[in-house]
Amino acid sequence: MTSTLKPLVLRGAATHGAPSRGIEVWPPVVLAPMAGVTNAPFRSLCRNFGPGLVYVNEMIMAAALVYGNPRTRSMVSFAPDETFRSLQLYGSDPVIVEQAVEVLGSENLVDHIDLNFGCPAAKVTRKGGGAAVPLKKNLLAEIVRAAVRAGSRYGIPITCKFRMGINDDLITYIDTGKICRDAGAVMIALHARTAQQHYAPSARWEAIATLKQQVEGIPVLGNGDIWCADDALRMVAETGCDGVVIGRGCLGKPWLFRDLIDGFTGRPRQSAPLLGAVLAVMLTHAESLMQHHRDNGRNDDTKGIREFRKHCGWYLTGYPVGPEARRAFSEVSTLDDVRNLAASLDPSLALVEGGERLARGHTNGPINVVLPHGYLDHLDDLEVPADALLTTMSGG
Ligand SMILES: Cc1cc2nc3c(=O)[nH]c(=O)nc-3n(C[C@H](O)[C@H](O)[C@H](O)COP(=O)(O)O)c2cc1C
Fold it and tell me: What pLDDT was estimated at residue 298?
């Protein structure tokens, strides 16, 4: 399949004279929302390597935002130079989702909202939320319409991200794409796995091609297993999708966005950084995480440094640094620990052959997806899943 890739336009319809917010993104590359990862410091690093793309904040629980949960509120956080503020909402009650979009719009907190319909977490599917919502087409349509209605009061474009379905017997993605489009979403993105697959085995890109063929009139973005720029080019060529969503491939590798821009615009590729350059990015990341949490009201650096620890293994993936250094990085407690460890390593170490395609982040699957008892017997109703009181969750 050949592809003529165009810039991705995300623009909100505006009512009542609200200015329409929008962006034209070239190349059409989007950072996937990743809970606990894609906060302002991480996005800043990515933007430094790849300016002008869409970088989605970590997922925000609609109900927690509406009820004024301070922790949730502090997660709605963007750098001053972040000109297109993008965020993902999780919600399965149309009324709450509309209210959450209203909060985000009326307080001028964002320029784009993505809706999550792919969360495979047992604690939500068991209640009929997350990846279970698309089975209930009427409810799905109501949620998207509610978000679009509130978004249009502020010119905010709404997009939707979902998986292929629950499992191979409960595939929903084509209908989901059509419903989201008809309800007013301006872009849809498919994580080409079922909820049951979780993160393994491989993403099924053929589903992205099918979605693109069968759901016309809306940009279709592909997501799953893009580890390097060549993977993204191949996904576009093989599926005809209108752009790509980057998940685990950029963990510990924010320069992937530079490589993607180079790849899609035909510029010569740059080689993977040597360890010294990686360590410099790590230090910047650690500093900015600490500052971020201080700005958000923490009076010590424990949260920032703890959060940084999980990134260390990702940054060092593919560099021959040895298990002791890896373990020491996973236990750092201060910025000085990071500096001292970095100084103890050989900055001239290069990435091992094939290192850029080494997996990072979640790799487990398949999982057992549990639905509420009798859920499949009443898919047409508008009963809202009992997941509104969850305040934290991860996944999609
Ligand atoms: C740590 C982590 C957190 C995630 N959190 C979310 C989330 O909050 N919302 C969502 O839609 N997807 C979430 N995902 C899924 C990713 O957005 C993406 O769909 C998935 O990782 C597949 O893309 P990949 O193969 O490129 O990683 C998360 C993935 C990871 C690894």
Answer: 85
